Amino acid sequence: MSESTPESGQLGQGQQRHVIVMGVSGSGKSTIAEGIAERTGWVFGEADEFHPAANIAKMEAGTPLTDEDRWPWLEALNAWMRERAAAGESTVITCSALRRVYRDRLREGLDSLDFLHLDGPAEVIASRMEGRKGHFMPPELLQSQLDTLEALDPDESGVVLDLRHTPDELIDEALTWLNLPT
Ligand SMILES: Nc1ncnc2c1ncn2[C@@H]1O[C@H](COP(=O)(O)OP(=O)(O)O)[C@@H](O)[C@H]1O
Ligand SMILES: O=C(O)[C@H](O)[C@@H](O)[C@H](O)[C@H](O)COP(=O)(O)O
């Protein structure tokens, strides 16, 4: 399948792909999404960069975001994907996308949007957050992220991947699920 390779240039409607690597903070979204972007040539987006400064300050201070905090952020991410779609480009972005209603907002106006959910034991995620230096997200917020998380419903296009696998394994599993060459 070559429709999404960097060489293919502008893609017609229906040929482009839009993928969100989802999961709680520290699950490995950035690592895997960057790998997918490298292998596919799709435009990469990092959801943390779409948060208003107030949201970042709130998380940094150890306070979980509310739905109200998240709506403008989700709207900005959706607008960005729609712009890329209008330009005929495929995208892969990181986004916690913790609740079903958030994912519904993210899907608006797109022909298709696939979710790759990085899931696994809380202890593994916690130790990764502890080991990550210079990131604004405090490990204490992990529990609220896990409490907010709603698994993909059967009618949502997506797959759950085991975050304990290595990044290379996960990128291969993602590409295989997406029906792309590994
Ligand atoms: N599959 C993996 N196996 C081991 N360590 C990983 C894996 N994926 C990510 N990491 C490490 O875990 C930490 C969190 O990963 P990151 O990609 O920043 O997660 P997120 O974007 O979901 O917050 C980073 O230090 C990263 O290097
Ligand atoms: O909806 C939220 O509460 C945040 O978006 C959160 O889920 C996200 O994970 C943070 O932005 C931390 O960034 P990392 O996911 O990169 O740790």
UniProtKB/TrEMBL annotation:
What Pfam families does the entry give? AAA_33
Which GO cellular component terms are attached? cytoplasm
Pathway, according to UniProt?
Answer: Carbohydrate acid metabolism
Q: What is its EC number?
A: 2.7.1.12
Tell me the protein's name.
Answer: Gluconokinase
Native source species = Knoellia subterranea KCTC 19937
Q: Which terms under GO biological process does the entry name?
A: D-gluconate metabolic process
User: What CDD domains has UniProt attached to this entry?
Assistant: GntK
What is the uppermost EC class here?
A: transferase
Q: Does the keyword Nucleotide-binding apply?
A: yes
